[in-house]
Amino acid sequence: MKLGRKxxxxxxxxxxxxxxxxxxxxxxxxxxxxxxxxxNISAALVTDVGGVDDKSFNQSGWEGLEKWGKKxxxxxxxxxxxxxxxxxxxxxxxxxxxxxxxxxxTIFGTGYKLVSAIKNAAKANxxxxxxxxxxxxxxxxxxSVTFKxxxxxxxxxxxxxxxxxxxKVGFIGGQRGLVIDRFEAGYRQxxxxxxxxxxxxxxxxxxFAKPDVGQALAKAMFNNDEDIIYQASGGTGSGVFxxxxxxxxxxxxxxxxxxxxxxxxxxxxxxxxxxxxxxxGVGTVVEKMATSVQKNKFPxxxxxxxxxxxxxxxxxxxxLNSDALKAVENYRKQIIDGKIKVVERPSQxx
Length: 350
Hints:
The protein is α/β, with parallel strands linked by helices. It has helices at residues 2-40, 57-71, 92-101, 115-124, 149-163, 178-194, 211-223, 237-247, 282-294, 322-336; strands spanning 43-46, 81-84, 106-110, 129-133, 142-147, 168-173, 199-204, 228-232, 254-257, 267-268, 271-272, 274-280, 303-306, 313-315. The chain has two domains: 40-147 and 283-306, Rossmann fold, CATH 3.40.50.2300; 149-279 and 320-348, Rossmann fold (3-Layer(aba) Sandwich), CATH 3.40.50. The chain is globular and about 55 Å long.
């Protein structure tokens, strides 16, 4: 009788042990599956020159990717989300290749200057998803994203024209090209829509990462009695804000920010000099594209365009007075309704 009970107890313990072993095995497999799943949605971003702290285009993109990563419980690094910073154009291809070797599922190129590097990488790596922002690449594994920057810039022009006291305003671009053409053209058209007699001084820094040049150009404009400057120049724009902070000690001047709300960039001891900022939903698009991979709906081979109507670009209220805000809203509605067509090239201006 005792012997029988002993064998029964041993049998029960063996069954429990087998059950625990099986559970442990299942958990291990489940954990591997989870890690594999997260690895399959990993994403990284290659910056244009200026880096993720440029207070503008690159930073907006990185903030979007970071938000997406944290929302999905991912960590910064391999099998999660990350970025590779480009200090010059020569860094684009090596940075992309580094991320490919690290097996990131989706790689973002923030800026039209990365077109060639992304195009070559996409051709050589058909199983990797690529996103080019601000240009178009025709390839099945590349999603292209463009913005109607000219529409938001038009509203910035309206804001400047409604605010200027000297009837002289400025525009400082980073580098000439199809994208910054849209900013310049829209801004100038918006100013002219309000008052054709207002003069718009246009200068280019020929770089998105030279704050000293931006500061020198802005200082010259302020010396020329231009009281508002719209800068579309990436990291170079920080120099424009520096020049304005020096000038504000002598007279009232404003800076119009770009790509993200640059209100904080205009803070000084006596107040704030960021009149308003044009917004560009780079971060929102990066987050959206990364999410599409999770849902197996990556729009490879397609072009997505975002304007005022699609809420991809906009203008902040900033420090605009009631008359300026009313004018901005009036023109915004006309653009969305198709009553005003905003040009994309300075050469198209009348």
